Amino acid sequence: MRQAGEPPVRLKRGGAVLLTEAGPVQVGSPPETIKDTMRLKFGVPAVYILPQKLYRPEWGVSLAELEFPVYFNFFVLKRKTVVVCERSQRVRAEEVLRESVFGPEAIDLTMDYARDTVPFGLPDLKREMDHFRKNPFKKGELMQLEDLVTFVELPIDEERRVLPDKDIRVKLGKTSVRVRDGSRAWVLDESMLAPVIDPPPDTPTSFEPPLFGVTCLGASHGFDSLEPTSGFILWVNNRGIMVDPPIHSTRVLESFNINPKHIHALLLTHCHADHDAGVLQKCFQESKISLYTTPTIFKSFIRKAVALTQLPAIRLYDLFDFHPLSIGRPNRIGGAEVICNYSLHSIPTIGFQVFFEGNSMVYSSDTLYDPDAIRKMHEEGVMSRDRMASLLDFPWHLDLIFHEAGVPPLHTPASVLAKLPADVKKRLRLLHTDMRDIPADSGLKRADKGVENTMSLPVRPSYRTEAVKTLDVLANVDLFAGFPVDKAKEFLAMAKVETYKPGAAILLAKHSDAEPERFYIVMSGQVELRFSGKTIVYDAYDYFGQTSILLNQHRRSDLYARTDVQLLSLSAHDFLHFIRGSAVGPQLTRLAQVRSTGSWDLLSSGRIFSTLSTTQKTQLERILEPRDFSPGRHLLKAGAVPSAAFIIRRGKVAVRRGKKIIAKLSPGDFAGDVPSLSAGSASPLCFAAMSHVEAYQIDGKDLMDFLNHNPGVQYRLMDRDYVLGVKGSRRLRTR
After folding, report:
1. Torsion sign, CA atoms 326, 328, 332, 337
2. Looking at residue 202, what is its pLDDT?
3. How far apart are CA 389 and CA 546, in angstroms?
4. pLDDT value at position 727?
5. Which residues in 368-388 are b (16+ Cβ under 10 Å) and which e?
6. pLDDT computed for residue 428 by the predictor
7. Are 603 and 620 in contact (CB under 8 A)?
8. 181 has which bridge partners?
9. Biggest CA-to-CA distance, the chain
């Protein structure tokens, strides 16, 4: 950074603020940065500058999340927000804002209902949305985007004045932003806009998810500067469904000592930024996950994601397994029955009831539950009598009630909930609520966050419980994907459950008189492998012990329980019987051989793959094949359709586009052209050994299979400039 004047204020959640003569000017607007600026003396800025990349996959955040600053400036400060951006970015930023603030332009709810279902109280969401869209400062008019935002379009690399009454000049570069305020100037590299993420606590503990319950991750709303935004995990059969995942949800889970692998699905209730910002991040940063919502909400989410990432919709569909939720008929998620309804909100939003093993819970989601206001909307013709009746008939009788109490008129007044009977309030927990807005002596209680406050409903384990847990582990070990049902029956008969306390030895280095080895899969907790002063941590669904069995070698590493641990184990004989006739044996043999060449340390230290989980690194190692190249030899030739890619182990590789060397790759770097490999087209790049090179080759089909299961890695590798470390990467290149 080069600057003359007061240094920028870097915000914890990302972005930076420049203190100019015109007031604070914010560069980049990641989710929830309004919580940072609300706490600072200069307050929420009125001017926002968008950098070239509106979405950063390596951080997992949007830099154009303007919804909450726009709301705050308009409704609280009664002013418009100024957004400075490149001309081509305006359309994308407008698309995201329209979808967030006003919702879809057209709505057809017939796709959200099962064909044989007769809707009761079918809502006219468009009319309800228009009711909330009334302009408070222009009676009888609906708010338009131009009432909220003024866009200032700039050509790239050209400095221009952006405010009519102040001499503030901005120049948008390919990787930086320059701002000049008279004699003062700032140049911010886009890397300065990254969020500051606190490391998880180094106090590993074991958390065993309940059979049925809820863990709150945050309980407040987007304008509470002191508390995290609402989000929670619904536990069913010991597995988690994350509802409206908060931004940086993986780190949130780690801070609560919840293994992210225990989360098998996401449920999205609507597309306001405080509810959907973590969905795209979760998909990009981890392996493919199931996403549950209605088709209407899903399409809205995709439109926002396309505008932010510039990825085609069809490629975004590959990020997750989409499961459409039906309205008006039960849905099955993880063994529970889930019944959804459209709540009363400014954009399409669902609440839901959950029934499991004789217990029940309900989540209102964001909604205006105010009987007087609902009846008035019916009288004004905003909703039908059936719709009014369905909204007033909230299931207060269920065992656990999670209800929002945000800021009216879009949310439920806490004063209304305070009038509920005492027995209802005992079962009620508030979300989306600032503690300061809960009336004193009301009997209302906000949900407490953290695993220690997990609310478990009393489900008695059945004869199926242990079998379900065992089969869940088998289903989540990618080695055994595609095994037939008969194999699952074998596994249930052979697998043994072992438990260990923290610090207990599980396996120690073997000697000639040692007993036969066993194969282990982690059910819960963490295991430490220690070898030559190095440590590898295994957690849920990771496996170990196969090398000694397959290669008939004595164990050279020690394994200890890092936390309370549950393992599934198979004897050497049973393990070999279980994998006989499958491709698992050759895969694991190759894994052991490749790992002996130092592949784990290489992946862990490299720029591209160091962020992969233990499971992802193991998946990648299984498809590596060592290769050598003499100086001058081509790894990949320009003009040819790639059939493989490489990870450099030793030596240097030159990357040429035409006659120009555009990058030099070192150990740990990725040498390949994934866009061309994916499209089956000729590559414009040439990769040639500058010295003797040792590399790991990855077959093209194996690589694409790996990337299809790990969409976040695929997204990063599809950007050639990011892969090659070339500065100036502006957009995802698919050709």
Report:
1. positive
2. 65
3. 60
4. 58
5. bbbeebbeebbeeebbeeebb
6. 97
7. yes
8. 168, 184
9. 88
Measure the CA dihedral 431/433/434/439, to 10°.
-110
pLDDT digits (tens, 9 = 90+) for 81-92: 999 999 889 999
Total Cβ atoms within 10 A of residue 596: 12
| Amino acid at position 212, single letter | F
List, for the chain, all residue ranges whose pLDDT scores fall below the cut of 70: 1-5, 115-121, 200-205, 286, 462-463, 510-516, 727-735
210-252 residue pLDDT tens:
999 999 999 999 999 999 999 999 999 989 999 999 888 878 8
Residue type (1 letter), 332: R
Is 0.90 topped by the overall pTM?
A: no
Tokens standing for 241? 């469904």
Give Cβ neighbours of residue 659 (< 8 Å, ≥ 6 apart).
none
Three-state DSSP at 226 gives coil
Considering just the CA atoms, what is the radius of gyration of the chain in Å? Answer: 27
Question: Who's near 52: CB < 8 A, 6+ residues apart?
Answer: 86, 156, 172, 173, 174, 175, 190, 730
Report the first-to-last Cα separation within the chain, whole angstroms. Answer: 33
| 453-475 as b/e: b if 16+ CB within 10 A | ebbebebeeeeeeeebbbbbbbe
CA dist 202 → 63, 256, 257, 489, 713 (Å)? 30, 11, 10, 39, 26
Show the beta-strand stretches assigned E in 166-298: 168-172, 176-181, 184-189, 212-218, 231-236, 239-243, 263-267, 289-293
DSSP state, residue 74 = I
- The H or E element spanning position 660 is strand 660-665
64: which DSSP letter? B
Cβ distance 281 to 251 under 8 Å?
A: no
CB burial class (10 A; 0-12, 13-18, 19+) of residue 313?
exposed
Domains and CATH numbers, the chain: 2-102+143-193 (3.60.15.10), 212-453 (3.60.15.10), 465-582 (2.60.120.10), 599-724 (2.60.120.10)
Peptide bond into 209 cis (omega under 30): no
The single-letter code of the amino acid at 687 is: F
* pLDDT tens for each residue of 453-501: 999 998 877 667 778 888 888 888 888 877 887 888 888 889 999 999 9
Alpha helices in 358-405 (DSSP H): 371-379, 385-392
Parallel/antiparallel/unpaired status of strands 176-181 and 184-189: antiparallel
